[in-house]
Design brief:
- By secondary structure, the chain is of the alpha/beta class.
- The protein has one domain: TIM Barrel.
- The chain is built from 14 helices and 13 strands.
- The chain is globular and about 55 Å long.
- It binds 2-acetamido-2-deoxy-beta-D-glucopyranose (2 copies).
- The site of one 2-acetamido-2-deoxy-beta-D-glucopyranose has 3 residues, from strand 11.
Amino acid sequence: MTFSFSLRRIVPILLLLFTRYFCFFDGSDGRMLYGSKHHIFPLQTFRPYNIAHRGSNGEFPEETEGAYLRAIEEGADFIETDILSSKDGALICFHDVILDLVTDVADHKEFANYKRTYEVQGFTITGWFIVDFTLEELRTLRVKQRYLFREQQYNGIYPILTFEEFIEIALNAKRTVGIYPEIKNPVFINQQVKWEDGRKYEDVFIDTLLKYGYKGSYKSKSWLKMPIFIQSFAPISLIYASKLIDSPKVFLIDDIDMPTQDTNQTYWEITSDEYLKFIKAYVVGIGPWKDTINPVKDNYLCPPTDLVKRAHAHGLEVHPYTYRNENHFLHWNFSQDPYAEYSYWIEKIKVDGLFTDFTGSFHHYQEWTSGSHITK
Ligand SMILES: *[C@@H]1O[C@H](CO)[C@@H](O)[C@H](O)[C@H]1NC(C)=O
Ligand SMILES: *[C@@H]1O[C@H](CO)[C@@H](O)[C@H](O)[C@H]1NC(C)=O
């Protein structure tokens, strides 16, 4: 009698505890303190990372809330963004130094006289530069799709995001979603924007990450809780950042005819064994333009270079960019099939992650080919 009595009383209590436990862990009670939030689904680390290039920008205007939420829904491991600064020093998510191509700035008569010409990394550019707008002014603009052959119905809806809003999108996701922010155009930004106390763009960038609790070396406990890769084409910025934060960094590598934007080094210098040996003290990987790893002629692949093998020999990961579904981005060897392209790069070239405009396609490819004990 005592046994059944206590069981009847204990079972509901256990059930209650059980449900509360899971309510807590799935975050359904709303926002919690960042860093104390535990996730049911950890970051997957057993297969190459799905890095959502500017969000799921194949479907939504790039670097907007819509693009990032869609990427998270579609299975992104990391959401990727480019950080630039407004005139008044606010860090925002935007790829180009000018607003012309992916916003409605041309329709805003009040900004007609903001058009300028600047020298940016050896190129003379004319347009509406982000560094001439305050954050408040930038907020009045709306983002649009870069390519006319992509979905246009979300044009004019989304404002430009701040760096902090971007971080909060990742931290509010129902599973662990990493961030992959770029220290973008640091030479130009530091020339044009000044912060108090002589702080540099890189200081403000890293302070933003520290404020949210990003820390820890690659695959450490704190990294797995809040995964991040800090990326840049500028080696001086990465080396500087390594003194401020121990989070993993990735050195981006441009096309073979583009010198580095701060040290003016050639592609050949920065992909030499000597340089990889030097830079691996500061970064965990490289992020090359994919056609430099595997050169292309007449839209056909040539034999691949040994860059991935050499980087791996130095213990560096390789995360190339950018993978896009559309026919005219696919080299003939792939028979107009984006899955064939993923298969080539994962199985044959053996990359450790890749930047894609179509998070969902890459996620499906991985679900079909790499087992089912997955996150989503
Ligand atoms: C960068 O290096 C090239 C030679 O490799 C040189 O012609 C050019 O003037 C240099 N640019 C700057 C800004 O130093
Ligand atoms: C791509 O296709 C061309 C033409 O058939 C062929 O010569 C080349 O070897 C292929 N490249 C790779 C990497 O398979």
